[in-house]
Amino acid sequence: MVLIVVFSKPEKPxxxxxxxxxxxxxxxxxxxxxxxxxxxxxxxxEPGMIRLTAHCYRLDIxxxxxxxxxxxKALKGEIDIRPNTHDLIKYVLESFDxxxxxxxxxxxIENIYRAKLILRQNDKILNLDVRPSDAVAIAVRxxxxxxxxxxxxxxxxxxxx
Length: 161
Prior knowledge:
By secondary structure, this protein is of the alpha+beta class.
């Protein structure tokens, strides 16, 4: 059973998909969880830049310095005196027993990178369209893997080997 909830602005509708998965079903057969055509990325940041590296390609994604600062602190295991938004999201997910399965950076439309944050609570999977910077910041905090579409690495990435 699939429930599609559509939140729309007049110019661009967004779909958030909640799939109800039977606990005994094979997770490999859930299309949103498939890693075919994706590679796991290593993360590095510079002020205003997220660097995702996989299979000798490096994909640079520009973002606000606050975002890269948040990711860098999470990579170093540092926590500010007061939690930031990504810390709060992590705490909420933990409080409601929601796990981050993975992040998939999967598209580049209108000069904007797109990502999916894939969450699981019991037998429910939530596939959210998010900014890559937010997805990476949450994934790093929850030790979730980050995957990049191979065709995106090859078309937008730089060969670094």
